TrEMBL record:
It comes from Anaeromyxobacter diazotrophicus. This is Flagellar basal-body rod protein FlgC. Residues 7-36 form the Flagellar basal body rod protein N-terminal domain. Belongs to the flagella basal body rod proteins family. Keywords: Bacterial flagellum, Cell projection, Cilium, Flagellum. InterPro entries: Flag_bb_rod_N (IPR001444), Flagellar_basal_body_rod_CS (IPR019776), Flg_bb/hook_C_dom (IPR010930), FlgC (IPR006299). The basal body constitutes a major portion of the flagellar organelle and consists of four rings (L,P,S, and M) mounted on a central rod. The rod consists of about 26 subunits of FlgG in the distal portion, and FlgB, FlgC and FlgF are thought to build up the proximal portion of the rod with about 6 subunits each.
């Protein structure tokens, strides 16, 4: 595997993890939003990640398997109804006094943030390692 292919694979990971961080942040920010642009409560967003092959030139270098990058195939909205909380003083309360809040679990979203952040750091370290290896190869060639 050459340097540029490894760099493309790591950069695809960086892009996917950036999307995961953005979506988890959006979910946390809207955990208490009772009204969206459509007038309904916010729906939690989750990324769907998909492996992407980088072609046959990497197959021999990957030990017979195909080297894979990653991409966000789609961003899916949660289909759950949300949680109902009794608060008759809330402006969005229904006739029974219940407010429908988004089905966002802050603990789950913080764990997603931590996981995406660590994966982003790992991909950034891989890019740094590739840069160091390329620099050393150039130094040897001098």
């Amino acid at each position: 595997m050459d340097f540029l292919s490894a760099l493309r694979i790591s950069s695809s990971g960086l892009a996917a993890e950036r999307v995961r961080v953005n979506l988890a942040s959006s979910n946390l920010a809207n955990a208490e939003s009772t009204r969206g642009p459509d007038g309904k409560p916010y729906k939690r967003l989750d990324p769907v990640l998909q492996a992407v092959p980088f072609g046959d030139q990497l197959a021999s270098a990957a030990g017979g398997g195909e080297a894979m990058g990653v991409q966000v195939a789609q961003v899916r909205q949660a289909e759950t109804a949300g949680r109902r909380v009794y608060d008759p003083s809330h402006p969005d309360a229904d006739a029974q006094g219940f407010v429908t809040l988004p089905d966002v679990n802050p603990i789950h979203e913080v764990v997603n943030l931590m996981s995406a952040s660590r994966a982003y750091d790992a991909n950034a370290s891989a890019v740094e390692t590739l840069k160091t290896m390329a620099q050393r190869a150039l130094d040897i060639a001098r």
